[in-house]
Amino acid sequence: MSRQRKFRERAPSVPIEKIDDYSWRIPTSYKSGMRVPGMVFADEQLIEKIKTDRTLDQCANVAHLPGIYKYAITLPDGHEGYGFPIGGVAATDYEEGVLSPGGVGYDINCGVRLLTTNLSESDVRPYLAALTNSIFRNVPSGLGSSRKDFRLNIHELEQLITEGVPWAVKKGMARPEDATHCEEGGHMEGANPDKVSSRAKQRGLPQSGTLGSGNHFLEIGKVDKIYDKKVAKTFGVTHEGQVTVMIHCGSRGFGHQTCSDYLRIMERAVQKYNISLPDRELACAPGTSDEAQDYYQAMACAVNYAFVNRQVITHWVRQSFKEVLKRPAEDFGLDLVYDVAHNIAKIEEHTINGKRTKVWIHRKGATRCFPPGHKDIPADYRSVGQPVIIPGSMGTSSWLLVGKPKAMEVSFGSTAHGAGRMLSRSAAKRRFWGGDVKRALEGRGIVVRAASSVVLAEEADPAYKNVDRVVEVSDKVGIATRVVRLVPMGVVKG
After folding, report:
1. If phi over 0 gives left and psi between -120 and 50 gives alpha, with beta otherwise, what is residue 171?
2. Is 449 part of a structural domain of the chain?
3. Residue 277 has pLDDT above 70, yes or no
4. Fewer beta carbons within 10 angstroms: which end of the chain, N or C?
């Protein structure tokens, strides 16, 4: 097969209709078997990038899923993924629809949390290098990383994946209020360790409390601009220059193995239940089937693993501030604003065609963004809406947004999860040199510590879309609006 033909197959021409400046539709006429249209939220520049890979075709493929409602959604950070595009959302009927691991992804509950401090940049800048170094020492990062003084046995692991963040509270590695400020309260119900393979458990044993590699990071940042002072204050952001900490990681090898295990099961289920799909990567099973129920219970374990992973890292970040600044961590605040999940499937109720309907929500590379008054938002935020955290790349801005009512109308309460890649990792490594990336960042006053120079090349800023543009689409569509813009001061990469 020629290289040119391969490229054509990877980037098919997909008809797409412009609805307005930020919304686009893939008609059901594009492919036989589409049950609903595709819906893409993007501006002109982002849609041109989205057209260059299989994202739109994958969005149309998702629209074939049995029981899917309204449309298959791709968000402005969308790019090609496994089965579903990354930045994909789909809701299927709880009784008549399906559950698909491809709609969650391999890094189950990859997510991000934001901490605020009562410190300003001037307080931290003299200690920034020492703080970044301390965090790099205390938080294991890189492929296969682990911390020798934090090892679990199987019994402890099974407790952890069943209980989530409340487990860390009991172990003295979390404040009680940390769980309150996590999506799902840091504990997804239905987790059943018996549905997780021994291989997944073995991979998870040494990796709890580790950052991992790839696009995962830990960042000391500062508030660059406040767009909504009232909401910002509710979330604990009080002034420009305020120091923050952001943690982005997931369920490590535990989640990856769980996804791999159940993809094999779902591939057999497709044959068993005679489900017709345009792409085998969309392997799924009826939501009420044993296969789907088993996957959901195993996935919930990986969700809880990831919540605890970010929580244990938070504990070590607080220890690092104590170690470097020689005072208790509580003196500096280091309060959890919120912890959001990016790769997850949930049982939710949404109003569809005027009727409250129970659905399986797939969010893959997508952030939940519920509006004011929703019962699943922490009580202290319920009057303003759910915090939404959208990180950028190493040297660019990140954002704190807030969920809005329109999200429930057009995106099943979902928005983007990050900048989204412009270049593949291999392409980025060919174009950039890790040492050059590090020097450029440090030349801008950003302290960088990384497990390898290769990951710095893979994660160079130009390898990602402009996160400000992605956030602008969310803001203009009205699904989650801007509250605070953050910029990096110190970055730890795996």
Report:
1. alpha
2. no
3. yes
4. N
What is the domain range of residue 487?
3-422+464-493
Helix (H) or strand (E) holding 202: helix 198-204
The answer as to whether 96 is a domain residue is yes
Q: Do 434 and 453 meet the contact criterion of CB atoms below 8 Å apart?
A: yes
- Is residue 143 scored above 70 in pLDDT? no
> Which two structure tokens, joined as six digits, stand for 16?
């797409």
Task: Give, to the nearest 10 degrees, the angle between helix 252-272 and helix 290-325.
Answer: 170
Nearest residue to 489 via CA among 394, 420, 421, 416: 394
Structure tokens at 295: 């996957």
Q: What torsion, rounded to 10 degrees, do the Cα atoms 458, 462, 463, 464 define?
A: 130
CA angle 122, 124, 125 (to 5 degrees): 70
Residue pair 473/452 in contact (Cβ under 8 Å)? The answer is no
Question: What strand order describes the sheet that includes 38-41?
Answer: 17-20, 23-26, 38-41, 72-79, 86-93, 355-364, 343-352
Could you report the per-residue pLDDT of 226-276, keeping only the tens digit for each?
999 999 999 999 999 999 999 999 999 999 999 999 999 999 999 999 999
Q: What was the pLDDT predicted at 95?
A: 96
Q: What is the DSSP string of 395-452?
A: TS-EEEEEE-THHHHHSSSEEE-S--BSS-HHHHHHH--HHHHHHHHHHTT-EEEES-
pLDDT value of position 460: 87
- Name which of 138, 452, 451, 108 is nearest 298 in CA terms: 108
Residue 375 lies in a domain: yes
Residue 350 β-bridge partners: 357
CA dist., res. 18 & res. 14, Å (int)? 13
3-state secondary structure of 488: strand
Q: What is the mean pLDDT of the chain?
A: 94
CA–CA distances in Å: residue 61 to residues 51, 78, 458 = 15, 15, 29
Among 470, 306, 346, which residue's Cα sits nearest to residue 90?
346
Q: Tell me the CA distances in angstroms from 315 to 135, 158, 276, one per residue in order.
A: 11, 21, 47
Residue 97, C-beta contacts closer than 8 angstroms, at least 6 positions apart:
65, 66, 67, 68, 69, 91, 286, 287, 359, 360
* Residue 356 belongs to domain with CATH number: 3.90.1860.10
| Sign of the C-alpha dihedral computed for residues 285, 286, 292 and 296 taken in this order | positive
* Total structural domains within the chain: 1
**Looking at this protein, which amino acid is placed at residue 488?**
P
AA letter at 247: I
Q: Domain for residue 206, yes or no?
A: yes
Spatial CB neighbours of 373, under 8 Å, sequence gap ≥ 6: 382, 383
CA distance 335 to 283: 40
The residues assigned a catalytic role are: 417
Check residue 215 and give its pLDDT.
82
